[in-house]
Amino acid sequence: GAVVSQHPSRVICKSGTSVKIECRSLDFQATTMFWYRQFPKQSLMLMATSNEGSKATYEQGVEKDKFLINHASLTLSTLTVTSAHPEDSSFYICSALSPGPFADTQYFGPGTRLTVL
Amino acid sequence: GQQLNQSPQSMFIQEGEDVSMNCTSSSIFNTWLWYKQDPGEGPVLLIALYKAGELTSNGRLTAQFGITRKDSFLNISASIPSDVGIYFCAGQLRGDKLIFGTGTRLQVFP
């Protein structure tokens, strides 16, 4: 159980274009999902919390107009990188929050490698 | 952003050896988690710890939630080649946000 998928797994785009990444919880409903960014040889950094039916909450320093998040259903959250630039190239990972006996647990997707030329 | 201090940064060991890594924080957490990440993949949950002092095992893995709630360690016994990867600790905050450690890169030689 607790399977999370992401699509696409890899994307290459030109500078200035927008890219949409999907995150789906396959076998459970998730009112809360999270989006992380990971640069090479670094840890995961939380970008934003995605809440179903409401606006996302962004971490300090993350531009909400650049990284658009939509959580339209209990199994799908999308991250759109608008007007992408080479410095946006990174590994984007989502997670979905699953209820647990003592605390809710985050299960992660396989990640999306974004390369902006 | 905030990160937890994880040590060692990297380890090179021989197959069959035991491994120990730890994670420390200046803040208190109510939940500690240990994840493993393979190259090009998302993190996979290994062990979750919910109570201070708790010692939990998952196969060859054992983790403990420090009594002060500011640290945790992970032990891997009798390492095998598939243990290779990056291990991350994470502390869970209110609102279920995770703060990740800096990671320990494990390399196992046959």
Question: Most extensive interface: pair and counts?
Answer: A-B, 28 and 26 residues
How does the overall form of chain A come out from the CA principal axes?
globular
Q: What's the tally of helices of chain A?
A: 0
Overall shape of chain B: it is globular
Write down the Rg of chain B. Answer: 13 Å
Percentage of residues in DSSP E strands of chain B: over 45%
The Cα radius of gyration of chain A reads 14 Å
Low-confidence stretches of chain A: none
| Total of helices of chain B | 0
Oligomer: heterodimer
- Terminal CA distance of chain B reads 37 Å
Spatial gap, N to C terminus of chain A: 37 Å
The total strand number of chain A stands at 11
Question: How would a textbook summarize the main sheet of chain B?
Answer: 6 strands, mixed
How is the secondary structure organized here?
The complex is a heterodimer of chains A (117) and B (110).
Chain A: E1 4-7, E2 10-13, E3 19-25, E4 32-38, E5 45-51, E6 57-58, E7 67-73, E8 76-81, E9 90-98, E10 105-108, E11 112-116
Parallel strand pairs in A: 2-11
Antiparallel strand pairs in A: 1-3, 3-8, 4-5, 4-9, 5-6, 7-8, 9-10, 9-11
Chain B: E1 5-7, E2 10-14, E3 19-24, E4 31-37, E5 44-49, E6 55-58, E7 61-65, E8 71-76, E9 85-92, E10 98-100, E11 104-109
Parallel strand pairs in B: 2-11
Antiparallel strand pairs in B: 1-3, 3-8, 4-5, 4-9, 6-7, 7-8, 9-10, 9-11
Report on this model:
The complex is a heterodimer of chains A (117) and B (110). Chain A has 117 residues and is mostly beta strands. Chain A has no helices and 11 strands. In chain A, the strands form 2 sheets. In chain A, strands 2, 4, 5, 6, 9, 10 and 11 form a 7-stranded mixed beta sheet that branches. A 4-stranded antiparallel beta sheet of chain A has the order 1-3-8-7, with no helix packed on it. The model of chain A has no long low-confidence stretch (mean pLDDT 93). With 110 residues, chain B is an all-beta fold. In chain B, the strands form 2 sheets. In chain B, strands 2, 4, 5, 9, 10 and 11 form a 6-stranded mixed beta sheet that branches. In chain B, 38% of the residues are buried. The mean pLDDT of chain B is 93. The chains are: A mainly beta (117), B mainly beta (110). Chains A and B meet through strand 5, strand 9 and strand 10 of A and strand 4, strand 5 and strand 10 of B.
